Amino acid sequence: MNSHYKDFLIRNWQKSDRTKVAAVISYVLSEYGLGWEPKGADRDVLEVEECYLATGGEFWVIEHQSQIVGTGAYYPNHRAEKSVEIRKMYLLPSVRGLGLGKYLLQQLEAAIASRGFEQIWIETASVLVEAVKLYEHNGYQPATGVETLRCDRVYVKYLDR
Questions:
Q1: What mean pLDDT is predicted for residues 128-150?
Q2: Cα–Cα distance between 71 and 57 in angstroms, integer?
Q3: Under the phi-then-psi rule, with left for phi > 0, alpha for psi from -120 to 50, and beta for the rest, what region is 50?
Q4: Interior CA angle at 87 toward 86 and 89, to 5°?
Q5: Of 42, 69, 79, 134, which sits 20 to 30 A from 28 (CA to CA)?
Q6: Of 160, 4, 10, 145, which is closest to residue 79 (Cα–Cα)?
């Protein structure tokens, strides 16, 4: 991935991003009263190679003026054949409301579809109001089967074949 949206660069994660990515995600979680869980729900951020790259997924970072301001990722999951889960879609408050989240979601969906996947799953928490609104306005349907402790919502979107 190497894409631009306005003056933002969306690119593939690099090993040197690990600490900065963790800081961005931890900050956004704390903003909503959610905890950073390095041994639980956020272990994948510290193990991108194993959790994303080695499983057929991707992890992207968003840069603005050489600073990481957001992330987005996906990997195959076990919910159905040819299904993935979008994970770690976070934007710092300073870059929200610019259409970047919608663009990022569209880019993730395009990458997922191009690899032949047919279902996209997303788990989130109700307190992440902007995320819930984004998913619901982009065709994600409520589903059942939340697996992440801090999440209370799960959505699915079926891609056209």
A1: 95
A2: 14
A3: alpha
A4: 100
A5: 79
A6: 145
Phi, psi of 154 (to 5 degrees): -140, 140
Q: In sequence order, what are the residues at sequence separation of 6 or more whose Cβ sits closer than 8 angstroms to the Cβ of residue 55?
A: 75, 76
- How many residues are present in the chain? 161
Residue 61 amino acid letter: V
What are the structure tokens assigned to 7, written together?
A: 């003056």
Distances (CA, A) of 46 to 50, 67, 96, 100, 119: 9, 19, 24, 24, 26
| pLDDT tens digit sequence for 62-114 | 999 999 999 999 999 999 999 999 999 999 999 999 999 999 999 999 999 99
